[in-house]
Every structure is written in structure tokens, then in C-alpha cells.
């Protein structure tokens, strides 16, 4: 697989980045480390917003706490930086109050799957109308590289100094089994597929979940003989695209292929659709 | 099913009156998690909200409930949750969050016996201090404490008005007995209700560059909802007038002082209490909620026995009425503080009294409210 650079980024000259108008003035430089995967996910997201021609006044982005949690604040959207683990319930309230908004959650694996794990599974079960992008960097980056719910067995982190001895989550399977209508996994470097996938998720009605595997050279890579570009290279080399694969079979293995692709894309009444149904029934009843 | 405002005279429980107060105030979003003894509020709103165009959602826990209401508030809806002790403990993080992000929300705490699971079905008043200090960092809480179903209606409505006016979380701090007590409740007509609506930015989106800039007097910024082009920028991080994170001591001091100040400077106006014969009283009983109601009977009997006893019933516990208590401490020989915990309100009274008079606690760890006899005996004791 080749590392893809977006068209927009390639045509950027000294005049600044073509996506600059999508960012809040004076917020760049961002806080992310060199070689971090989060920036390219943000870029893919903004390009998807652009190509999908999403009306900017209807774009809301909600993040939790952590390295990825900073995404919301950079974007010139209605942006909400919430508490640790709670972007999904915040987004739930926002979406139910303003169904016409396009509410996205961009947050990290620790935020969404550890401290916020309960909200993640219930949001998928409800099929609440939210688009979630979960950036999985395999550890807690912001706090200095601690073990997380996605840390591979044996990996060294600051709180697993002898190697992680817990099994990690298979996030896509977790969310698929709870009832999400769209589930995919991509690498942060695969900006083109990621952008298309985000775009596709915009067109779905219900709960969508895209896991993005992202290198964290500074905290995860450094402690696991994956310095600088090595972790990204490892991910690219090991990744294999298998659209439609059974999510039960795509747990990220200690060795061998890391399966990416679109795994789930089906229809199921969304929370808002069911709520509308309830309202219609009540209306009928009262007239 | 019913009208938006259930105008008329009813016989209803405190919890139902609370739900009706919310609807009358314009609450159109409720997120909650079942917990005794507050669940009737959620049940009532589950039935009522869809019929008035509102949304009810039962969340997966109290953490989710307490931040879903913040999300809905930024979506432009008046929003509320209701809970009791253990759930209230879980909500503390989002009380701080709503305070820091200036999100108007209403929380209702129907107090039960604690700590921990404690006494799910029986009364307590042990959340007095948690209501004020439960979240981390410096903040101010507005806590209204009703003593009857009528006040649960009135104060819930008032809580929404205050939340919108001050852009802050407001607590209705009731208890199991008042929540479950069934009494006459008079609900005014919709036209007779005083409703405060959110202060929206006067300038169009392109001109609103400093969304958290305030005037020097009220120090409350207007609030733009999501979805109207304002590119709302909101964070629980310390932030400047643009809403951008400011990770330094000056920015922190400036922001937190403004947030705390916007409540503190209005403390006098927020104060609400009922005074009963305190002017020339030797002993003044200070209480709120169900304990204040029981105290009324004890005070009456003490007066019948010829004692000079008064009652100060707090209707707003936080901000605490420091100056009023200080004045009382100058005139009364003793202040008597009955409460259903082992000494929380009494500490505040002691603090405000500055040692000017005797402050005596009448405490019980919870499960029942103090008997009028107990309070009467304490009055007689301090009067000796
Ligand atoms: S710590 Fe890791 S995830 Fe966080 S910004 Fe640095 S590289 Fe990225």
C-alpha cells in the first residue's frame, strides 16, 4: 500500500493550506507531535466534509479528552470539547435537541472505549444518529503513554513496563455487535480511503463507527522499537484490506495481517426514526 | 395528553410537581437514570415531554445523563436531569463542566440517606455540602430547597429561570419526604408565569469574535446555540474570551474569578427565605426542606409555652445567606440547627455566626426526619 497524500494538500503552496479556512484562526500550530497520525485524520475528515458538501452551519464536532480530544477545538465548526469519555452522551443530547445538525464525534480509543466504553455500546445499541471516528493510537498519548484498552499483548507502555498482559478490545466487533449500521477500520495514512469512508458514513442514518489506526511515535512507538516512522511503516506493511470481513475475525493480532476495510454497512431504524414514529403515534392518538 | 402548563389546583406529589414545574418553565429535554426516590420525576416526564414536543431519554448512567443535558442545552433546549445521592455523586464532574462552560442546566436531587447506597427509600439531607463542594476546583452553586410540593413546582421553574439568566447549573435540592408528599399544588396560567429566556448574542455570527466577552457589570456572556452559524467554541479547559484554551495562571485566575464572581455578586438577590418571629427571638431555629416544616410545629409549641423562639426557613441554601445569619447571631442567644445528617448546615451557620452566639446542632444520620418533640426538647434545653 502506498501512503496517500490528499490532492488538496499537494496543491497547497506557500499561501497556506487549502484547508485553512476550515480551521479556527490562530489555533495552528496544533499540539500534536511530529509523526503523529491524528493530523491526517483531521485532514481526511475536513476533506470529507468538503466533498460531501456538508453545510457548515449544520456541522457539529464533539471530542473528549486526550490527544484526539483536541480535534474539535481546531475546527471552525460548532465544536465542543467535553469531559473525558463523555463526547458521545454530550453529542446525544445535542443531536436530540437539534436533529438537523450533523453531529460527529472525533475522539481517541482510551476516551471512547475505556472511560467512555459504556456510552459507546449504548449509543450503538440505540443506533443514535451520530458519526463516530475513533482514533486508535494503542495507548494514552496525552498523559505520557500508559497502557490502554487497545494496547496489544506484550507491548510496553509506562504502566505496562514488563509488557502488556491484558487482551485488547476488537473495537469494530464490539460496536458491530451492538448494532452500528456502518463499521470500518482504516489506517491514518490511507487518507483517500479514510476520506471516502467518512463521506460514506455521512450518508448513513444511524450510528456509524470508523476506527482509525494511527501511529503515536512519541509515546507508543518509542517504547516498542518503533521509532519515528517505524510504527507507521509497520502498520502499512501489515495492513490488508478485506471489505465485508466478519468483524469477529479482525481482532488486531500480535503478528500477521491487520485487517482494514468496511465491515458493516446495513440499515436499521435509527433512534431518531423510532422517536419520530413514537411522536406520530402519539399525534394520532390525541386527534 | 395534557396542556403544556397544567393550570389549576391539583393534589399531587412533590416529584410530580417538580416535573410539571419543569414543563411549565419550558424544559424540553430530560435525560436521566432511574434512582429511588426521584424516579417519579423521570416517569412523569417520559409521559409528558413527547406530548409537548420535547424529548425524554433514559441514559445508561448518571454520567451520561448529566452531560447529555449539557449537549441539549447547547442545542438550544432547556434541559434537566433528576437523581438522588449516589447518582448525584456521579454527576459532580458535569456540574463543574456546566459551570466552566457556562451551560444552563437544571439538576434535581431528591436526597436520601447515605453514604453509599445507604437508605434508598428513606429521607436524608446529607448532600448539603456535596451540593456546594462536590465538583473539583472553585465554583459557585445555586441550590434551591423546597419544603412542599408547591415549592417543588415553583422552585423548579425558578431554577430554569436562574440557569438561563446566569448561564450556570442550578440545583433543586429536595428530599425523599417532600418528593413523595402529596399536597395541594396551584399551577398558574401560562400567561401568569414569569419565564426567563436565554440571552442570545446581539451581533450576527461574523461579528461575534469574542463569544465569552462580558460587560463589567453582570459578567454573563450571551449564549449562541449550535447550528446558527456562530461556530460555537466550547471547552472545559481554561479559556479566553474567544473560547481558546489558555494554559496559564493569569488566564485561569481571570476566568475563574469571573465565573465565581457572576454568582457571588448577585448573592443578595438570590437569597430567599421565610422568617417567622425572629426579630425578638431568644432562640432561632434554622432549617430547610422537610426539617424546616417539622420545626414549624416545634416553634409553635415552644411559643405556646411562652418561649421567644423564631424560625428561619432557608429556601435557597447556596449561596449561603451569610449576612442574614450574622445579623441573627447578634440578636439571638442561640441558633438551633436541626438537619438530617451529622452536621453540615450547622457548620455554615457557625461560620457565618462568627462566634457571636451559641450554635447548637440537632442531628440525625437519616432514615426519618426529626420529630417535633426532639426539636422542642432542644429548644427548651438551649433556652435554659
Ligand atoms: S502523544 Fe502520540 S498520539 Fe499524542 S500527539 Fe504525540 S504522537 Fe500523537
What does this structure look like?
The complex is a heterodimer of chains A (287) and B (384). Chain A has 287 residues and is α/β, with parallel strands linked by helices. Chain A has a single domain, classed as Rossmann fold (3-Layer(aba) Sandwich). In chain A, 35% of the residues lie in helices and 16% in strands. Chain A contains 11 helices and 8 strands. Chain A has an 8-stranded mixed beta sheet with strand order 2-1-3-4-6-5-8-7, sandwiched between helices. The N terminus of chain A is likely disordered. Chain B has 2 domains: 185 residues, Thiamin diphosphate (ThDP)-binding fold, Pyr/PP domains (Rossmann fold), CATH 3.40.50; 109 residues, Rossmann fold (3-Layer(aba) Sandwich). Chains A and B meet through strand 2, helix 4, helix 6 and helix 11 of A and strand 2, helix 3, helix 4 and strand 10 of B. Strand 2 of chain A pairs parallel with strand 10 of chain B. The complex binds iron/sulfur cluster.
Q: CATH homologous superfamily of the largest domain in chain B? A: Thiamin diphosphate (ThDP)-binding fold, Pyr/PP domains
The total count of strands of chain A amounts to 8
Pair of chains with the largest interface and how many residues each contributes: A-B, 38 and 44 residues
Main sheet record of chain B: 8 strands, mixed
The overall pLDDT average of chain B reads 97
CATH architecture title of the largest domain in chain B: 3-Layer(aba) Sandwich
Which CATH class of the largest domain in chain B is shown?
A: Alpha Beta
N→C terminal distance of chain B:
58 Å
Which sheet architecture does the biggest sheet of chain A show?
8 strands, mixed
Structural class of chain B: alpha/beta
What is the subunit organization of this protein? heterodimer
Strand order in the largest sheet of chain A: 2-1-3-4-6-5-8-7
The CATH homologous superfamily of chain A corresponds to: Thiamin diphosphate (ThDP)-binding fold, Pyr/PP domains
Cofactors, ions, other ligands: iron/sulfur cluster
CATH architect. name of chain A: 3-Layer(aba) Sandwich
Assign a percent range to the helix content of chain A. 25-40%
Q: What percentage of the residues of chain A does DSSP assign to strands (E)?
A: 15-25%
